[in-house]
Design a protein that fits this description.
heterodimer; A: about 120 residues; mainly alpha; 8 helices; B: about 200 residues; Arc Repressor Mutant, subunit A; 2 domains; 10 helices
C-alpha cells in the first residue's frame, strides 16, 4: 500500500475536525472572574473616577461642578447689590410708603420699651 | 452575575463597546462573557496549553479595553479584531518557544476504564490528541487557517480579514494545510480508528 493510499480522505479529516469542534475547551470560572474584574478595572470612566477621588472632589461633584458655582456667584452678587442699593419699590413693600425713619424705633412697639422709657 | 444572560444580550458588539466606554459595568460583563470563552478556546486550539491560552486571552482582551475609547464604528468587527490579535499573540509565543521545547500537550485526565462509554471516549481522545500533534507540526499560518476554517467554522472572507490576506490565499493555505495534515496522519490510521478493511 502506497503512502498516498494511507493518507486520510477528506471525509475522514472532516469527521476529525467535527470532533475537535465539539470538544470546545472551556475557560475555568476563576479565569472568567479574573477577566471580568480586569474589564471593570480598565473601564475609562471608572479609572477616571478612582483617580479623582477625595472628599473635596465629591463635594464639588455634589454641588454640580463649575456651572453650579457660577450660578451661586451670580446670586451672591445680586443679593449684595440689592442690600446696598435697594430699589424704591422694594423699600415701599417692606416699610410702607409713609413711614419715617424716626418712627421705626423698636422701643415704640414693645411694652418693655415703654417700661424702659419710664425709668 | 448571570454570565449566560450577559453573553446572550441582544445588543450589538459595537453598542456594547460604546456602553463600556461610557462606564456601564453591565457592558463590561457582557463583552467579557461574549468574547472571553471564544478568545480562550481559539488560543487553546493554537497553543494547546491551558495556562498559555489564558495568558493570551487575558492580553487580547486587555488590548480590547485599551482600544475601546478609540473604537471606530463600522471599521472592523470586534470578533475579527480579537481573532487577529489572538492569532498574532499565539504565533509570537509559538515562535518564541520553538527550538526550546516541543509543544507540550495538556495532560488530559484519563477516563475511568470501566466507566460507561469509556472506550469510545478514549478513542475520541486519542484521535483529538493525534490531530493536535499533527496541527502543531504544521507551519504557523497553515495551522491558524485550518483552525479558523475547520474548527472555528469561519467563512473564508472572515479568515482573510483576520489573517490580512486575500480570500484566494486563504483557500490555497487551507488546501495545502489539509493535504499536509492528511499526510501527517497517514501513519496513524489505527490510532485514529480509521482502519481500512
Amino acid at each position: 500500500m502506497s503512502k498516498a493510499d494511507l493518507e486520510l480522505h477528506d471525509t475522514e479529516l472532516d469527521a476529525l475536525f467535527a470532533e475537535a469542534q465539539q470538544a470546545t475547551p472551556e475557560p475555568s470560572p476563576e479565569f472568567m472572574a479574573r477577566l471580568t474584574a480586569e474589564a471593570l478595572a480598565e473601564q475609562p470612566q471608572r479609572r477616571a473616577a478612582v483617580k479623582r477621588g477625595g472628599f473635596w472632589s465629591e463635594i464639588w461633584e455634589a454641588i454640580g461642578g463649575a456651572p453650579a458655582l457660577a450660578g451661586l456667584a451670580v446670586a451672591g452678587v445680586a443679593g449684595l447689590w440689592l442690600g446696598i442699593y435697594p430699589p424704591a419699590a422694594v423699600t415701599e413693600v417692606i416699610w410702607g410708603a409713609s413711614v419715617a425713619s424716626d418712627e421705626l424705633s423698636p422701643y415704640l412697639s414693645f411694652d418693655m420699651a415703654l417700661a424702659l422709657e419710664e425709668m | 452575575m448571570n454570565v449566560a444572560f450577559d453573553a446572550a444580550t441582544a445588543e450589538s458588539d459595537e453598542a456594547l463597546i460604546a456602553a463600556y466606554v461610557a462606564g456601564d459595568a453591565r457592558a463590561a460583563r457582557a463583552l467579557t462573557a461574549r468574547f472571553g470563552p471564544r478568545v480562550f478556546s481559539h488560543a487553546y486550539r493554537l497553543l494547546q496549553d491551558r495556562s498559555e491560552a489564558e495568558d493570551v486571552a487575558q492580553e487580547a482582551l486587555l488590548r480590547l479595553w485599551k482600544q475601546a475609547p478609540d473604537w471606530r464604528a463600522g471599521e472592523a468587527k470586534v470578533s475579527t479584531w480579537l481573532y487577529r490579535v489572538t492569532g498574532n499573540l499565539c504565533i509570537d509565543r509559538i515562535r518564541g518557544k520553538r527550538g526550546r521545547a516541543s509543544v507540550a500537550l495538556d495532560a488530559v485526565a484519563e477516563p475511568e476504564a470501566d466507566a460507561p462509554g469509556a472506550e469510545d471516549r478514549l478513542q475520541t481522545q486519542a484521535r483529538l490528541s493525534a490531530l493536535e500533534t499533527a496541527l502543531a507540526a504544521l507551519p504557523d499560518r497553515q495551522r491558524q487557517a485550518l483552525v479558523l476554517r475547520h474548527i472555528e467554522g469561519m467563512a473564508n472572507p472572515e479568515i482573510a480579514e483576520i489573517m490580512d490576506m486575500s480570500v484566494e490565499a486563504v483557500e490555497s493555505l487551507t488546501a495545502r494545510g489539509k493535504r499536509a495534515l492528511a499526510q501527517a496522519l497517514a501513519g496513524r490510521r489505527e490510532e485514529l480508528g480509521y482502519v481500512e478493511s
